[in-house]
Amino acid sequence: MADVTIRPAGSRATKTASSDSFTGTVLQDSMAAPQAPSRTSATLVTFTPGARTNWHTHKTRQVLVATQGTGMGQVKDKPPRILHAGDVAEVPPGLVHWHGAVAGHLSAHISFVETNGPDNTS
């Protein structure tokens, strides 16, 4: 019989995000990797004050669940919007956007995205 898998927080390695995809210091903690038939990944992303993603898109919808601090996101050609802990942002496929922390504040969110392989899970 199947059972629930529990991965203790201490069992997950935190990595520094690549400067190819982010500005400033950003930490990533993989919470769930896709397991067939599911293609959904979940990553806890922590932004130091003022850090953010570069402009980017995803092939599938991205859901960001703000968990800490004050974040911000922007869609190309629109004004930036603030994200507070508990807010949920849904980003449609192909939408050019960025997200991160406002100056002077940490920000963290869990990013859920479907993938067929390596993807920017910010």
Automatic annotation (TrEMBL):
Residues 13-22 have a biased composition (Polar residues). Residues 1-22 are annotated as: Disordered. CDD domains: cupin_HNL-like (cd02233). Pfam families: Cupin_1. It comes from the Bacteria. Residues 35-121 form the Cupin type-1 domain. SUPFAM superfamilies: RmlC-like cupins (SSF51182). Signal peptide: none annotated. PANTHER family: BLL4564 PROTEIN (PTHR43698:SF1), RIBD C-TERMINAL DOMAIN CONTAINING PROTEIN (PTHR43698). This is Cupin domain-containing protein. The lineage of its organism: Bacteria, Pseudomonadati, Pseudomonadota, Alphaproteobacteria, Acetobacterales.
